[in-house]
Amino acid sequence: MRRRLLALTCASVCLAGGCGVLPGSGGGQHTVTVWLMQDSASPDFLRRFTADFEHAHTDLRLNIRIQQWTGIGPRVRAALSGASGGGPDVIEVGNTQVAQYVDDGRLTNLTLESMRDWGMQDWLPGLAEPGEDDSAQFGVPWYAANRVVIYRKDLFQKAGVTAPPRTRDQWLADTKRLNSGAVQGIYLAGQDWYTLAGFVWDEGGELATQSANVWTGALDSPAALRGMDFYRRLQALGDGPVGADEEHPPQAGVFAQSQVAQIVAVPGLAQAIVRKNPALKGRLGFFPVPGRTAARPGTVFTGGSDLVVPRNTGDRDGAVAVVAALTGAKWDTELARTMNYVPNKTTLAPAVAAEQGVAAMAAGAAHGRATPSTPQWAAVEADNPIKQYMTRVLGGADPLTEARRASQRITRELSPDTD
Predict the structure, then answer these.
(1) For the residues of 266-323, what is the DSSP string, one character each?
(2) Which of 301, 308, 321, 345 has its CA 20 to 30 A from that of 263?
(3) Per-residue model confidence as pLDDT tens digits over 204-255
């Protein structure tokens, strides 16, 4: 989920059997082993961070090992189950993956440090909430990315739309105005369920709810149905396929080659669009997904990464020092600027204000959410009933009937032992 969301390009490094290690300088000091994910940070950033950290912590040396996202779950679980001191001391995990590793009690509780030292009250909710379990903080937010609206400035100007909309009602009105002749007002695939989730949350609904440790699908609530109805009205103002998601076909190609006024995507996708159609260079703009009122942007799904410390670490203090440094204001903002991410705190958003696409992301991330924090959510996505629900509704089926059907399937996947 997280890798698919982040359309970012960086040099990739594989560390099988020790290749691609970015080691410290040695010298007998304690070594802290850190697993970071492919493309999360550039080699230059890691070299600069390592030098700064080791200068400030003369008794520690960093051993940063870059991991690939493919197959990372079993590798992390194996590392968490290993002998004390034999594995990584800090691990980067996708924000929605934390729940998979908390379940068996193999992560270090970092609540005290989070409250006392790390300013958790300012963390992005879409990163912080998935890192929490039973009021304890296990995942520490590192960076985020989320969807914004990428738009054609020239098509907006031609249609007489002089400024990006700030409310959902205005967004609909502007998109209707743009949707004329050969121009699609918006290209929105019928199964873009991440975008739907934001509309559901904006209305006060949920994908699923938890009561007494039992999860229940909630797409059939009045609030969730209002979110689906807005999606239906917006999606109709373009030619997005009702039976496919945003990757089939890839919406960057559709946007580049067609007269499309808007898409909902991470801003990094603009680079791919311009590569496919260089004539669009300088014609693309960004704005946050509009909210119900102009007081705040719409709620969006937030992807990104948290840092966790295994309970079997051989150096808890060293691991905590690394987490503190990577997620602290200095290096977190440096990472955001380097990689075009959103920093982990709402108070750090000014650091990326100069980049329009990232600034639009940061505005949305301040109100971002993540998928339900349960290890079973991966089973929901494996054969996603939300996508099927959306296609049926967009095809004319009764929304309440289909929402109940999808909610029942979500409930079965989230509570398999109750069957």
Answers:
(1) -TTHHHHHHHH-GGGTT-EEEEPPPBSSTTSPPP-BEEEEEEE-BTT-S-HHHHHHHH
(2) 345
(3) 999 999 999 899 999 999 999 999 999 999 999 999 999 999 999 999 999 9
